[in-house]
Write a structure and sequence with these properties.
This protein has an 8-stranded mixed beta barrel, surrounded by 4 helices. A 7-stranded antiparallel sheet has the order 8-7-10-11-1-2-12. It is of the alpha/beta class. The chain is globular, with a radius of gyration of 21 Å. Helix 7 links the parallel strand 18 and strand 19. The termini are far apart. The protein is built from 10 helices and 21 strands. Helix 5 packs parallel to helix 6. It folds into 2 domains: 99 residues, Tumour Suppressor Smad4, CATH 2.60.200.20; 255 residues, EAL domain (TIM Barrel), CATH 3.20.20.450.
Length: 374
């Protein structure tokens, strides 16, 4: 079976791990924002290391970095072949190499806990409950406010699917983990969008002008066949002609500018805006920003977390990115803003919109109030 390679973090304080696909090769690691894996650490070098393929195997080479690259505790002096399970330290960023079947997922980044994984695998082995939930649309849609950061006014909502499996709450990440294993990822993504838009008429301000933006997520598999994706969206647009729709695409999902241009052209015909999601998680697509500017750019939580404590260097990097985004006519969105201090730092540096628990957690429509009359 053909395999894919990933770099996997250690569990964080909440027991979650982050897994990043090593593609395309060569795969560059460093503090340059256009690195394939961005090192959000002052100890990393701008051009730190590179992973590449040789005779069907994965190798790593240090690029004369200041603080070096080590494999299993040994500092690199020359390129070294890697094996699944090897622990690679880029300066102070420790990651483990893992090999998985290429059919397991097209997700660039996955975050979940080791305990959660065991529970989800049990649900994959007994798929009846998940399939019934999908068939009967036995899930709910929560809406998280997206606000203007200067005054906190709600500008829109991101739609997030939730479910219950095995007697426990299931997040979107967990549901898609199961769906991918069962070959139902696209069906689940379409069902989430369809149900969310049905509920959108109940949102506060749904009948006002301007209408709230509705940020809809996609699954990476849907970007393999953009024609099918556009066809499904055409049906939704026909059912909801007056909603202000924004399609979120993970910034690393589509690498070819030509593919992005074709997708954006199709979305323009449907009057649907485009947002690049999770910007800066590892494969920041600066070329695509310049060639196929999205309407919205959502900066990953890694940029926002602790921003009020960040170094001057990090602050200037964020500010320079925001200036570039603004010059391209793109609206910037800070994700996962969790405190007043983070919100103030985002405002000071130039973010335009924001979302996160500080402004409002994802909740069902009935907890947001009711919409006005048309």
């Amino acid at each position: 079976m053909v395999s894919s390679w990933y770099l996997e973090s250690s569990p964080d304080e909440r027991g979650r791990i982050r897994r990043t696909a090593i593609r395309p090769l060569p795969f560059r690691v460093g503090r340059r924002i256009d690195s394939d894996l961005f090192l959000n650490s002052s100890h990393g070098s701008h051009r730190h290391a590179e992973l590449f393929e040789r005779d069907g195997e994965i190798w790593v080479a240090d690029l004369d970095s200041t603080n070096g690259t080590t494999v299993n505790g040994e500092r690199l002096k020359s390129p070294r072949r890697l094996e699944s399970g090897d622990v690679v330290l880029f300066a102070d960023c420790e990651l483990r190499l893992v090999e998985l079947p290429s059919t397991a997922s097209l997700q660039t980044t996955q975050v979940f806990s080791l305990i959660e994984r065991e529970r989800l695998e049990a649900l994959v082995r007994a798929p009846g409950e998940f399939r019934r939930m999908l068939r009967d649309r036995g899930f709910r849609t929560d809406f998280q406010p997206v606000v203007r950061i200067d005054d906190g006014a709600v500008r829109g909502y991101e739609m997030l699917g939730r479910g219950e499996l095995g007697g426990a709450e299931a997040s979107p990440e967990e549901l898609f983990y199961i769906a991918e294993k069962l070959g139902d990822a696209i069906a689940l993504s379409e069902a989430f969008r369809s149900r969310g838009l049905e509920l959108a008429a109940r949102l506060p301000g749904a009948a006002s002008d301007p209408r709230p933006l509705l940020f809809m997520n996609t699954h990476p598999l849907e970007l393999v066949d953009t024609g099918a994706l556009l066809s499904s969206l055409e049906v939704l647009r026909g059912d909801h002609p007056n909603l202000a729709l924004v399609l979120e695409i993970h910034e690393a999902t589509v690498a070819e500018v030509s593919s992005l241009k074709a997708l954006r052209a199709g979305l323009e015909q449907l009057d649907i805006d485009v947002a690049f999601d999770d910007f800066g998680t590892g494969q920041a697509r600066l070329l695509e920003l310049a060639e196929v500017a999205p309407h919205y750019l959502k900066f990953d939580a890694a940029w926002v977390d602790g921003l009020h404590f960040a170094s001057d260097r990090r602050n200037e990097m964020v500010a320079s990115l925001l200036r570039m985004v603004d010059e391209l006519g793109i609206t910037s969105v800070a994700e996962c803003v969790e405190s007043r201090e983070e919100a103030e730092a985002c405002l000071r540096l130039g973010f335009q919109l924001a979302q996160g628990n500080y402004f409002g957690s994802p909740v069902p429509t009935e907890e947001l109030g009711t919409a006005g009359e048309d």
